[in-house]
Write a structure and sequence with these properties.
This is histidine kinase. It is an enzyme of class 2 (transferase). Helices cover about 60% and strands about 10% of the residues. The longest helix is centred in the middle third of the chain and has 84 residues. The chain contains eleven helices and five strands; from the N terminus they run H-H-H-H-H-H-H-H-H-E-H-E-E-H-E-E. Helix 5 packs parallel to helix 7 and helix 10 runs antiparallel to helix 11.
Length: about 450
Amino acid sequence: MDGPAPPSQPAPARPGGGPPAPGATAPGATARAHRRRGLREWVVDIGLFTVAVLYGLAWAIALEEDPEVSDVALIREQTACVLACAALWLRRRWPVGLALGLIPLSSYATLADGAQFVALFTVAVHRPAKVAAPVGTAVVVAQALYFGLYLLLAGNPDAPDDDMLWIVGFTAITVLAVLGWGMMVRHRRQLVVSLRERAVRAEAEAQLRAEQAQMRAREQIAREMHDVLGHRLSLLSVQAGALEYRPDAPPEEVARAAAVIRGSAHQALQDLREVIGVLRAPVGELPQPTLADVRSLVAESVEAGTPVTLEEAVAGRAPDTVGRTAYRIVQEGLTNARRHAPGAAVRVVLRGAAGDGLEVEVRNGAAPAHGPGRPGSSAPSPDPVAAPAPTAGGGVGAGAGVGAPGGGQGLIGLAERVSLAGGRLTHGPDGEGGFRLAAWLPWPV
């Protein structure tokens, strides 16, 4: 087989300093590949050069035994063979030009046919068939024209020599064989290159799919972390803020508030373990909330001091995916209400049925200027942990957690979750100083 395909360039490093892309070649490996290819090219070139020389020697021996061939003619044949074989070292740079340039020599000198066949083979390997076929045809036609001209000049055009006819026929058959062999080599090379490119593409696509799967897993974990821990930590923040605001509370209330904080912290740790379990077990093996768990979620918020009312008008049992998504919507709504509207009443509405879909609405009013646990209020707080600490402008202190930093990632993740479930999500001010979070989720029959 002739020389290999052009060497591939080293692939640049991937963005971020990561490893090269699939199929990339390190500079050291490329240099070693260059050395291997150079050695192989030399072996192939020397081998083909030797074949052309041996072909010429075989014909030279045969011509020496022919008494009709003079010494001068034999020297001319040998000289043409040497020139043709020497020109083979240019076959890689100018394959077509060399093959066409050797036609006069090979037509005149039979000893140069070996070099001509090597040049034709090179053309068939490195050029498409539409180029190689005309060059091969030119070799056979030139051979026939030379012998026809020879007979015409000899004065006996009607009596072609049998040896001449045999040489033309042999040349035609050999040209077809050489072109066929070269085209087969070319086709095999193209097939190998195609398979390599396909393998590289398949590896790159597999890596891309793996990266996308990792990204989806990370997004899922981020949503779970925000939904679960954000809810628990907002409760902790509100309860701790109440203790900070009322350092003179009776010991019984302080002990009760501390117990609530401890219970919430313990539950937050349990939730964190469940979220981390996403990394260790399939999603189907993890406990997931359902629509029925919304009641306990509301009760938990009421116990923490947030006035929440729940209205349910759900006919039948909702699918697990729908129930889980509805639970996360209510959870996010309650968390945001505690953060941004402490003390405001919250209304949670669930209604729907199979075929109609499930509607989820969480609406909170404006944060009261004077309410339970706020400055200037004579009404006692229903629970000491529900009283947020005041700040300038009616906000809450750092210890309260209400108004704690939130970059809006919760609503973004919630919108993605609802979209994946095939539903719609809307949120924004309700025009009365409050905030409304509403969603519709498909509920198949």
